[in-house]
Amino acid sequence: MKILFAISILLSGFVPKAESSQTSRPNILFIIADDWSFPHAGIYGDKVARTPTFDRIGTEGAVFFNAFTAAPSCSPARAAVLTGKYPHQLESGGNLWSEWPAEFPTYVDLAEKNGYFVGSTRKGWGPGDFQVSGLSDNPAGKNFEDFDAFLTERPKDKPFVFWFGSHDPHRDYEANTGIKAGMRLEDVDVPGFLPDLACVRNDILDYYFEVERFDRECGNLIATLERIGELDNTVVVITSDNGMPFPRSKANLYDFGVKVPLAIRWPTKIRAGTKIESFVNLIDLAPSFLEAMGIPIPNMSGDSLWPLFAATQPGKAEVFLERERHANVRKGNLSYPVRAVRTDRYLYIRNMMPDRLPSGDPHVHQSVGQYGDVDNSITKFLIMQMQGKQNNGLDFFELSFGLRPEEELYDVVKDPYQLNNLAYSKKYSPVKEELREKLTNWMRETGDRRFSDPKSTYWDDLRYTPDYQMKDVDVRSEIEKYRIEPPLGKYSKTGIPCITLSSDDKQ
Questions:
Q1: Cα 427 from chain centroid?
Q2: Closest of 347, 366, 362 to residue 397, by C-alpha
Q3: Which of 75, 148, 149, 452 has the most CB atoms within 10 Å of its CB?
Q4: Which fold has domain 25-313?
Q5: DSSP state letter for 245
Q6: CB 221 within 8 A of CB 32
Q7: From CA 125, how far away is CA 132, in angstroms rounded?
Q8: How is the chain split into domains, by residue range?
C-alpha cells in the first residue's frame, strides 16, 4: 500500500521532502471565514475591501479565481471540507443544524492518527450536534481559546493541524461600522440582484467592515507563524464556507452564494504569484491536505490540488453544486433541494421542488423570520417592502423570495448577476441539454439519491437540532432602526431613516 501511494504521489507531480522526522512534515493552518463572497478582496480588484493578509497569501502563493463551496450553507459546506465528500454523500451532514455523520473520516482525524497535534478555535463544523454521534470534540478538532493556547500545548516534536473558524462576516452587523471606518457609500459596487439604495450600500459597507476584521485576524495568525519560524513549513489556506448573507446570495447556488475567495501559500511547493483559473471545489482541500502530510487518501470525491501547481494535469472545466435544507423555515421542516453545474460560460440549475418557496415561507415556521433562508437585515427588510413594485425595471422581491422554475440557465459572462433565465429559450436548448446531461451523470456517479428519486423527502425528515421558536418580524419598525450616519455623499440626507424608498435613495 505504501509503495502504491508513493508511486501515485510521484505521478501527480507532488514530491514531498525526503526528511523522515515528524517535524519535517508540513503544518496545516486552515482559516475559514463565515459568509464571505468572491470577489470581495483587494487581490481580486475590489475597490472597497482592504485585505492585505489574504492578498499577501495569494501573492506569495496561489490565488484562485474559480473556487466554489460545495453548498451555500455553513454545516454542509464545512462537513464537505472536512471529509472531501459532497454534502449529498454525507447523510444528515447535508443539512444545516444537523447531526454529525461520524462514520465518514475527516482529514483532521487522519492527521491525529498519524502523529499530528490537532485543534481548532471558534466556529468549527456546525452549527449542529456532534455529541449525539459520540464525539467529545468538534470534528474540526479539540477547541482551544486561541492559536497561542494551542501552540503552547503542542508537543515540540509534533507538526500541527489547526482550524481557525472566524464568525466574520456573519450577521448581525452593527449599523454604520463601515462608514465609521472610513469607507464610502459611493465606492460600493452593488450587485445587480440588489436594489441600489443608500441603505443597501450602507449594509454592504458593514459587511466589508467584518471582512476587514477577519483579514486582520488572519494577519495575527501569520505573524505568529513568522515569530516561531514555522511559516514556510506551513500550508496556509484562507477561504470561506459560503457567500455573503444577503438575498439571492447565501443559501443560493448563484455565484454570490457559492463562489468564494481562496488563497494557498506553501513556498516549497507553490511558486509565488500563481494564479489558478481552473475550477475547484472546497471538497478538494481534504485530499490536498492529506497528500501534503504524506497520509494515504481514503475514498473521497475531492481531488488533490497539487497537480495544478505542478502543471501535470489540466484543471477541471466545471464544478457541481448543491443544497438541501438550510434553516427550518417551511411548514413541515421542508428542504429546498437544488443541484447545479457551473462552467466558465454557463450556470445550469435544477430546482427539484419548484413548488416550494426558495427562501422559506412568508410567515415564520420556526426559525429566523419571514423568508428565513435569508438572514434578517435592512437589505432583506427593504426588499420585502418592495413586493408588487419594480425598481429600475427589476422585481427585486420576486428575485429574492418568489417561486423559481424547475430549470434555470444563465450566461455568466453576459449576465454576471444571473438575472436573465435562458432555460426556456429555444436558442439555448442545446446548451441546456448538454449541461442537464452533465449534471445528471454527476448525480448518478456520486450516488445522489435525487438521481433516482428527485423528490425524495430524506432531508426533510432529518432532525433539525435547535428547538427554539422565532416570531414574525415587524418589518417597518425594524427598518426604522437603521439610520445612516454622515458622510453620505450624493445618496441621501444626514440621518435618513431607511424606511424611505424615494428618489433621494437612488443612485
A1: 33
A2: 362
A3: 75
A4: Alkaline Phosphatase, subunit A (3.40.720)
A5: S
A6: no
A7: 14
A8: 25-313
Residue with cell 419594480: 390
Phi-psi region of 503 (alpha: psi -120 to 50; beta: other; left: phi over 0): alpha
Run of H or E including 120: strand 117-122
Q: Would you give the DSSP letter of residue 105? A: -
What does pTM read for this prediction?
Answer: 0.93
Beta bridge partners of 162: 29, 119
CA distance 406 to 356: 11
**Tens-binned pLDDT, residue by residue, of the chain (507 aa):** 333 333 333 333 343 333 333 458 999 999 999 999 999 999 999 999 999 999 999 999 999 999 999 999 999 999 999 999 999 999 999 999 999 999 999 999 999 999 999 999 999 999 999 999 999 999 999 999 999 999 999 999 999 999 999 999 999 999 999 999 999 999 999 999 999 998 999 999 999 999 999 999 999 999 999 999 999 999 999 999 999 999 999 999 999 999 999 999 999 999 999 999 999 999 999 999 999 999 999 999 999 999 999 876 778 999 999 999 999 999 999 999 999 999 999 999 999 999 999 999 999 989 999 999 999 999 999 999 999 999 889 999 999 999 999 999 999 999 999 999 999 999 999 999 999 999 999 999 999 999 999 999 999 999 999 988 899 999 988 888 887 765 555 555 445 556 543 433 333
Burial label for 382, CB within 10 Å (0-12, 13-18, 19+), is buried
Q: Which three cell numbers stand for residue 160?
A: 500541527
Sign of CA dihedral 38, 39, 42, 48: negative
Q: How far apart are CA 53 and CA 2, in angstroms?
A: 38
- For 258, counting Cβ atoms within 10 Å of its Cβ (0-12 exposed, 13-18 middle, 19+ buried), the class is buried
User: At 280, which amino acid appears?
Assistant: V
400 touches 419 (CB < 8 A)? no
Torsional sign, CA 481, 241, 42, 348: negative
Query: Distance between CA 451 and CA 88 in Å, rounded?
Result: 11
